[in-house]
């Protein structure tokens, strides 16, 4: 009886969903971490000040980002920039916030002690 490679492949059992080699890959960081990735990892849980296109300023702890430049901030406060007011502004508490990358003008590490 002749068995083609397709028939043979269909008879083989699929690998376990969480096989050990795959789990090792997930648990171990890659050895060639890029400089950009190292910078991002250094910013984790540090407070950032993000200026947005609509004039708002968000201050919060950097949690993560994605390929579309969206940023997640934890413990985030929002400040609305009002040029007519010289009074110290009370922030609006947002908590966990997703900032769309397309609306970000600038990002600064906020070293101000909280």
Name the helix and strand elements from N-terminus to C-terminus, one letter apiece.
HHHEEEEE
Structural class: alpha+beta
Major sheet, described briefly? 5 strands, antiparallel
Global outline: globular
Strand order of the largest sheet: 4-3-2-1-5
Roughly what fraction of the amino acids lie in strands? 35-45%
Mean pLDDT: 77
Task: Determine the N-to-C terminus distance.
Answer: 76 Å
Radius of gyration over C-alpha positions, nearest whole angstrom: 23 Å
Low-pLDDT stretches are: 1-10, 18-28
How would you describe what is shown here?
The protein has a five-stranded antiparallel β-sheet, with no helix packed on it. Mean pLDDT is about 75; it is low at about 1-10 and about 20-30. β2 and β3 (about 70-80) form a beta hairpin. It is of the alpha+beta class and about 110 residues long. The protein is globular. It contains three helices and five strands; from the N terminus they run αααβββββ. About 20% of the residues lie in helices and about 35% in strands. The relative contact order is 0.17. The termini are far apart. The longest helix is centred in the middle third of the chain and has 9 residues, at about 35-45.
In short:
The protein is α+β, with helices and mostly antiparallel strands and about 110 residues long. It is about 20% helix and about 35% strand. A hairpin with a 3-residue loop joins strand 1 and strand 2.
What's the structural blueprint in terms of helices and strands?
Layout: H1 5-11, H2 20-27, H3 35-43, E1 47-52, E2 56-65, E3 71-80, E4 92-99, E5 104-109
Antiparallel strand pairs: 1-2, 1-5, 2-3, 3-4
